[in-house]
Amino acid sequence: MIPIEQRASERVATRLKPGKLLTVKGGFLADCAITDRSATGARVRIFGSPRLPSDLILFDETGTVAWPTHLAWDRGTEAGLQFLAGPLTVPPEIVHRIAGPYYAVTD
Predict the structure, then answer these.
(1) How far apart are CA 70 and CA 79, in angstroms?
(2) What CATH code is carried by the domain that includes residue 20?
(3) Structural domain containing residue 62
(4) What is the pLDDT of residues 75-84, one digit of tens each?
(5) Within-domain flag for 18
(6) Peptide bond before 50: cis, by omega within 30 degrees of 0?
(7) CA–CA distance from 20 to each of 7, 15, 23, 52, 103 (Å)?
(8) Number of domains in the chain
């Protein structure tokens, strides 16, 4: 049986764009790769095994934009995210802090 497509818009492959998953308050959850994206959401490959909250932020490191999202599904190493708004432009000083290699480490 062929599964029924439930997406509101067509997915487009993104060539594994690097990203980060953040709490709604900006806390680090996990590094990820954005494997495909549509106008209404994204699929991400997750590095590590965080417990994802129902609402989170997806930060695209190459586009320096972020989307507030809702967790549509979670399969451990992959997750589907529904965009709630955005994309939102992230200011350069925040991009520098988030995209750094030690973002999860606090002073």
Answers:
(1) 10
(2) 2.40.10
(3) 12-99
(4) 999 999 999 9
(5) yes
(6) no
(7) 23, 16, 10, 12, 10
(8) 1
